[in-house]
Amino acid sequence: MSGTYDDIAPLRGSDQEDERRPTARGQVPITVVEPEGNARGGIVVLHESRQTTGALRDLMNALAVEGWTVVAPDLFHRLDGEPGAGVFGDELFDDFDACFDWLTRRGVFPDTIGVLGFDSAGTAAFLVATNRPIGAAVSVAARGIVEPLTEQADALVRAAPKLQAPWLGLFGEDDPATPPADVEQLRDATARADVASLVVTYPGLHHRADSPGDDDTDAADSQTRIFDWFDSNLR
């Protein structure tokens, strides 16, 4: 099937009673965008909203045009989840694993699955790459670089040595949530990991491939870098 549709991804072990997540109902709602023809791999897109924005959906469609099956989970499907608060810890990994399994059941090879996230979901994508042997990861404006966002999210500079997948980080120099000095610390920390990493900074706030402005060449460049990163590492 090609096109865009909603589906559900079962949580691992959801056929058994799990007192840790009594409201999860054993499944994660997902939005899927599939390419025409055979998929070359899969991209799990983490985002902070209960609904995908128009710009984010355009990015997902563009990834599908490139041949990727794109899966965006509703990270706030649990009754006590609040958008904007971020989903980390076991719940994040449970939801990612559900998307990962959904893709592999449809014939996608594990080493051709990547993860992409923005803002605190970019932090989540980074942490997924430190805990799961995926093919590649991209974070845009990932927060919590030096100080953790929550008790369930390690600071990125501390988690960086555990990266298991090639990681690309995109940042804006004027983003108050990611000060340049913090970004430089992250650049140094990820350079010491056992996998490839690349940190790119853009002037001002021109680093958002999910919300480009009119004639925004930097946003176009950031989208190109995202696509090239997955092209180079998911194979």
TrEMBL record:
Stretches of the chain forming a coiled coil according to its record: none
SUPFAM superfamilies (UniProt xref): alpha/beta-Hydrolases (SSF53474)
Annotated spans, Disordered: 1-27
Dienelactone hydrolase domain segment(s): 32-232
Keywords: Hydrolase
Listed Pfam families: DLH
Record-level Gene Ontology MF annotations: hydrolase activity
InterPro entries hit by this protein: AB_hydrolase_fold (IPR029058), Dienelactn_hydro (IPR002925), Dienelactone_hydrolase-like (IPR051049)
Protein name, per record: Dienelactone hydrolase family protein
Species of the source: Nocardia amamiensis
Lineage: Bacteria, Bacillati, Actinomycetota, Actinomycetes, Mycobacteriales
